[in-house]
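Contributing: when you submit paired examples, paste them exactly as shown. First protein:
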Amino acid sequence: MTRTDASLRRFLHGLPGVDQVGADKRAAGLGTRSIKTTAKEFALDLAIRMVDLTTLEGQDTPGKVRALASKAMRPDPADPTCPATAAVCVYPDMVPVAKETLGDSGVHVAAVATAFPSGRAALDIKLADTRDAVEAGADEIDMVIDRGAFLSGRYLQVFDEIVAVREACVRADGSSAHLKVIFETGELQTYDNVRRASWLAMMAGGHFIKTSTGKVQPAATLPVTLVMLEAVRDFREQTGHMVGVKPAGGIRTAKDAIKYLVMVNEVAGPDWLDPDWFRFGASTLLNDLLMQRTKMRTGRYSGPDYFTLD
């Protein structure tokens, strides 16, 4: 989609403003909903299937990535009915390790790229980072926008970078890795900026919009995710195209995950209740989901060390 700086500015600043008090109140209200029995069992399994099991530390080793990939395929080795997670998310240099371990399991490999987590690098470096990850076998790329450019109103620069990174996701055979665009909402300051960033990323061709890197607080919150879900809903109404949403960072309990699933259903609609359209970026959430799942099956809680610690 061809855009000029002036047209982007007019469009983004012409979006309806977000009622902060109203968004906070609605998110809080949706967060009080509860679900029981078979609906809760379904929600727990769905949440597991939506997890991007993540390790993004300087101390990551091939052994840690192999262990994480094995857990993604069989989250609960004692229960073969437990579903696999959606993906394993790693730094680009760990993509070959994750890819080899996951094989044809169906669990995707996601790689962070574009000078994660700061996004502060020259475009050619960001594109080389992306191409290296894609060529190594990444199924998905999680890029970060240049928040400094966005906050100073250089929308076209951000738009063009997203377009260029999406083009870098295309492989030689014509297939493409899916692109998730990370906003780092904790640095965007206002809900209006979150809405503008959402529309900017969607118009530039992002397959998913993602809240956070997990390195900045606050990370994912219910009100911010509400604003993003409203954006993808409205974008589909206007264009016919669905875009996914991924809250990441700070979602640690099954109770929290279910709050997000309720919000997805109520705000965007049931079409988004699918790992193809909604993900959780998490490293600690999975164990609590597994503990709650075991409680539903057996009537008792397992100890926190019953499942592997990541």
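Second protein:
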Amino acid sequence: MAPRTFWKGYLKLSLVTCPVTLLPATTEGEKVRFHTLNADTGNRVVSQYLDSVTEKPVREQDEVKGYQRGEDDYVMLEDAEIDAVALDSTRTIDIDMFVPDHSIGWVWYDRPHFLLPGDEVGQEAFAVIRDAMQATGTVGISRVVMYRRERAVMLKPRGKGIVLWTLRYGDEVRDESEYFDGLPGGKPEAKLLTLVRKLIDERTTSWDPGMVNDPVQDRLLDIIAAKKKGRKRASKPKAAKPEAQDNVIDIMAALKKSIQAEGRGR
């Protein structure tokens, strides 16, 4: 089944405009999901908010959002007040600027979406913008209202289309220097690097989506299929206990053994 269009609007660069459609590039629709049931009756369990002090149920119309400013002290906001600051969607992705493709670190990437021409008339304008970014090695930066908030977005050409990434807000990305600056400097021995590079070369292969299969999901599906047929699935064998290792490691010896093992395995 083809995914539903997530967003419709226009892609604009100066005076060049074309209709576009946006679809999520990822999905969680195939994930195994569970409901919480009453084990005695088999009925679904319904969750309900309780007052933390009185322990009495709270009606939906009495629920409000609260921003904590101190212990047991909150600033309460009505839904209307929160909705009032939401931005109206202009339905236009107006590319404000371009930056080198490699200049935006992966840590800023949030959610990917596929951007496509909205109709045949706009295909040429879409292709011109896409191919010009590809030729110059740049990505476009714009802003658009998505998920009820204005988001900075990056437009990156990919094949015949464009991938639109929502970018994380500035306060969501931690400063890496706070973590990495304390690490010891200096370069490892050249011999060690040579051995590790040999290991990397022997293990280098082409990317395949099968490398990121979810084994837990596969096992859950096996259990569900077995229960549908009224039989119990064989229990999972116990994993062997790992061998005890010394804290002191001879890196050179370990690398040589690894390369020998790689050779025997291949």
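If you have annotations for the second protein, write them as plain sentences, like these:
Residues 251-265 form the longest helix (15 residues).
The domain at 7-29+86-172 is CATH 2.40.290.10 (Ku70; Chain: A; Domain 2).
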